[in-house]
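Journal club prep, notes for RB
We'll compare a predicted complex against what the paper describes. Inputs for the cytidine-5'-diphosphate case:
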Amino acid sequence: YRGTDVRETKLSRQHMWEENQLNKAVIKENLDEVNLPDADKYDFVFDDDAMIDYEDNEEVMPEKDSEYDNHLIERLQKEQDRITSIQEMRKLLPVYSYRNALLEAIREHQTLIVVGETGSGKTTQLPQYLLEDGYTKGGKLRIAVTQPRRVAATAVAARVADEMDVVLGKEVGYSIRFEDKTTEGKTVLKYMTDGMLLREFLEDPELKKYSCIMIDEAHERTLATDILLGLLKDILPHRKDLKLVISSATMNATKFSRFFNNCPIFNVPGRRYPVDIRYTVQPEANYIHAAISTVLQIHTKEPLPGDILVFLTGQEEIESIKEKMEQITEKMGSTIAPLIITPIYANLPQEQQNEIFIPTPHNCRKVVLATNIAETSLTIDGIKYVVDPGYVKENSFVPSTGMTQLLTVPCSRASVDQRAGRAGRVGPGKCFRIFTKWSYYNELELMPKPEIVRTNLSHTVLLLLSLGITDLINFPMLDKPSISSLSKSLENLYLLGALNSKGSITRLGRIMCEFPCEPEYAKVLHTSATHDSCRGVLDECISIVAMLHETKSLFLGQKSHPGSHIVGQVDSDHMLYLEIYNEWRNYNYSRIWCQDHKIQYKTLCRVRNIRDQLFKCADKLGLVAVNETVRREMVDPSSHLAAKITKCFISGFPMNVAQLGTTGYRTVGKKSTSGLNVYVHPSSVVFHQTRDAKKPSKHVLYQQLMLTSKEFIRDCLPIHKESWLGEMVPQLFNFSKKS
Ligand code: CDP
Ligand code: MG
């Protein structure tokens, strides 16, 4: 199973590092967060010792020219300063020369696969061509374009609205979870995450509102994209007038074609300049340091202009590297040219996202610190250098334990090649790989694993069941998930009460589908309004659930312990989040209050918005009314609040419970053997309690399990009474009967 494969690969790389790093400091392989001690932070000096050795004999990723008229890019470059009209820009993109041929192919075939180099104009141009060709029937029908990532959906919609000179949210809009920027009856071109289109199937199983669907970035093979392709394959024969365009970077195209009865593949030839690939001579123990050094090496040694793109695994890593680089460049002062450091990741506030697209001023260099969002979804002009440590963060579900882990794993060869290609868009480029040539040829897998074979399928299974698709085994899929993973999700859904013992969807299961959040959270909310022993806390649970969706970007800065005035009063992260939200509300949603407490104002505004949506949904389902009745009967709503909330979360996340043993916490599942040793993350309130020598609770519920240097559990909630487990989920925790 992939989960173990990955670890083995990682371990063997680690082993190599260790072998080769005898003279270097202790291996610090805290890949997820760069919690380097302060001294280390300030000691990092960029000098000859810090230089990373790269092999001299570089490989060259060859130029790609084909039949494409390569004068276009050159003209684009020469005229870039001169071109003022965005319409002229559109005509210079590679897809433009194929506009008519593409439209003809789409007219002729119901399904078409479009393959082209990143940046050739597939995402921004193709939907506009369809619009211009009259597919929306004067506004009666719509065109949907799906994206695997939220950031891509919003950024591209904004760009296209610009190109069409319309206000974003009117003719052109986007829809991502908890944020709908479209106008009913007006929006004809809708960019959306693949997950949102999946939800639309619930209300409109034949997608009657749409005349064209473009599944973009299909090569990413997210779970939602794979399921969409299966559902679309199902409805195409009944909807002869519906056009399906599947667009993909260069990998995987024939697989899609085979899946859709050998439908044609349209190749948009693109130009790519040669890219020199450099590998490190030795494996590097600390890729974070190596990446920083490499960026500075490039900056001081390579000529201007030429921006740098660094591929990192996540927000925390990006923010901490940014902070560190700022300190170093500040120290180096005017001895180096100005370096503009811009991050890009999914949770970055919109205004900051746009910064990556601002052209770099002369005599400066821009370094973009990106997650693999910049691999294919977003094209940043002006990149000449790519720095690639070769890692990516992946969800990984282990059916035997029923647990999902977030792992930092080595990328596939296809991914690192795609990343290198990003350096050759505007001219010859260079790619610095922070791993060895040996590792590339011997350790990296060829292709990334599709999400469907490595993730928890519960949500998807529930959605398919509610769409009436009961034969899951024969549902058309590009790659089939394992039987064990399917049956684990059925078991999980049964445990939540979404399915009955015959495997059919229950009334509760349908309610869970209605909520715009994971079924587990929906179960928490349902319990909080209706369960005999803990109802009346719906409002509080909605706040906590909304906060849990945004915890990644809640606090400002890396290490400051936020909300510290509250920390002392609560004993769980859940209650901390609730208190933070309530206090902010009491201060009239104040921006100043956020600044004072080092909390991101924008994030809390998003939480407020999510809260509103969850509340509306609960209201629609009648849960709010039920909750209010109970609340009026309660003598003191604040009594037993924490206990009730804990019970609600147990009902939604019975699988996420760890039990204290002789060696610390161990996860509990159906079988006692399936446990895994886990550690409370230092960012958790519960961590501080154990450190302050309070007696740790025998059981703890967690929202996230991350595998980095250790198995960390985050967002933790102590369970003070063992009997609550058996009370809420007797099917799983029958041991409580004994006590
Ligand atoms: O989808 P594909 O990778 O083929 O290309 P695209 O995303 O449609 O991008 C086409 C062009 O639009 C690129 O040259 C980008 O630089 C530009 N673009 C932009 O300037 N700003 C955006 N937010 C998106 C695209
Ligand atoms: Mg694209």
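Talking point for the session: The pocket of magnesium ion (ligand 2) is lined by residues 122-123, 216 (CB under 6 Å).
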